[in-house]
Amino acid sequence: MKAIRFHETGGPEVLHYEDADLPVPGDGEVRLRVAGSAFNPADNGIRAGSLPIPITLPHIPGYDVSGTVDAVGAGVDGFAPGDDVIGFLPMTGDGAAAEYAIAPAEVLVRAPRSVPLSDAAALPSVALTAWQALFDEAGLASGQRILITGAGGTVGGYAVQLAKRAGAYVIATASPRSRDAVATAGADEVVDHTARSVLDAVTEPVDVLLNLAPLEPEEFAALVARVRDGGIVVSTTAWMAAPDDTERDVRSVVVFVRSDAAELAELVSLVDSGELRVDVAERVPLAELRSIHERAAAGTLRGKVVVLP
Fold first, then answer.
1. pTM of the predicted model, to two decimals?
2. Which of 101, 228, 265, 285 is deepest in the core (most CB within 10 A)?
């Protein structure tokens, strides 16, 4: 089969489009004929060796996958060849930037029927990040106010939709480039953080501050003042601590997304019911994945990219 692999960590130039052995599913695993894999910023860090995630070289990137079950290993009774599925693969193992991929059956769910199978690869890890941040960590409830910084990114699009669906009042920061998309996702207020201070724009307390952006530590700490007493700060920026305010009982947590099939199945249900939209900015052939890594490293990549084998 064809795959993108790197045999050493480094810049995008270490990625090679090459032949690889067809993988064989082990106990509890299935082999997928890949329909799509999704590029995520963490793929850059894993390839560069800057994220502390242990991998075995050579490594196939791409931990979000959609595809069709091609073969099943021993002990798998929930899926059969021909089933269309999606999943968030273990980040330590080979990914889905290939024609075929191995997945633990326990991370897979039936693919949504209302979007193309390849596009469904844009859902798992980013939508799970938003869900776990909003509900598992923040306990967001109807009637609460939430400020989402960095809402123009891929996680932000899902976070705004899910928060609004939950009945929250959503204030989101975005640049002019992503303002319309954030508003369409359901934000009640959109603050252009490039034109004015978020502190000046948000004057009323919020119950939840969800940070999805690489804020300066001073700016992040200042925003905690906008969180009501007893509120919560949730952040997905794992490389920096999330500030809190113990005197006012404002706690903080950093989210590390985990695979959760039950939650992913719920997200699929929302997609098929029309309550959650899957947005794909680009679709690129597998052989061109290196160019996506190059653009991401240069900071010029915008929106969710799905890679087609």
1. 0.96
2. 101
